Amino acid sequence: MRKGLIFILLAFCLESFSQVNIWEGSSCKKKVELTPYIVEGSTNNMAVIVCPGGSYFWLDVETEGFGVARWLQKNGISAFVLSYRTGDVSAFVTHYRKVFRGNRYPDPQDDLLQAIRYVRAHASEYGVNPDKIGAMGFSAGGHLVMSAAEIFSPEDRPYFSAPIYPVVTMTADCVHKRSRRGLLGDSRIYNKKLREQLSLEKHVPADCPPVFLVNCKDDPIVDYRNSVLLDSALTAMHVPHEYILYNTGGHGFGASDVKGTEESRGWRDRFLNWIKQYM
After folding, report:
1. Per-residue pLDDT tens digits for 173-199
2. Cβ(118)–Cβ(96) under 8 Å?
3. How many CB atoms lie within 10 A of CB 30?
4. How far is Cα 224 from Cα 251, in angstroms, rounded to an integer?
5. Is 196 within 8 Å of 151 (Cβ atoms)?
């Protein structure tokens, strides 16, 4: 009897905080899933929306999504994994977006904006503070969460932004070309206005939320100079931020206990120490 009751209670909890479609009931007909990882017993907890990377073509939802959310949850921070719209593998292979729109900018940004608004609207249900909803992203997801800190209206911006080994520029010679193509779409890949608009190092506002920035000098995917550009821009605008440049660790390690290096995995403790001042 006791085991049965425990099973029922666990089933209820899982049902209560299952994946949701953030666009359900809206004019947007897309299905974009948000997966909650809620700290048990929380009533006014900080929350983080987690945006996996994948060059704006796909999503590494396990290492840079669910794994990160479980780590945050374990450390007392409720998390929501956002499976935002990407170009998808077929767009990468076939270049069909030269003719058809497909998924492209501003779809990922619209999804993150809607996710922030959704969590705020349902804050009491999740036991989170509607005024303390941050965003953490990896690689292209890092570009996404930092673009939210820059281009969203002040009332819609995340409480803080944590871009981890992020794509930053769309114009400099250290650009990650695959992410640029993934975000802009094939028909707009040479659009100078969009490239300029989405180069994050060029548009840091004076009232930018606090930023926690990490990358590795040996990153073989996204040139480490992306983060150097962002750090310089944040410094110039006097934005409160912490920038950590590790020598080793590469790319794509998320919050894993085994990926990356012992050095780069230290970012997790550094983040937990940094975020205390904003909790």
Report:
1. 999 999 999 999 999 999 999 999 999
2. no
3. 15
4. 10
5. no
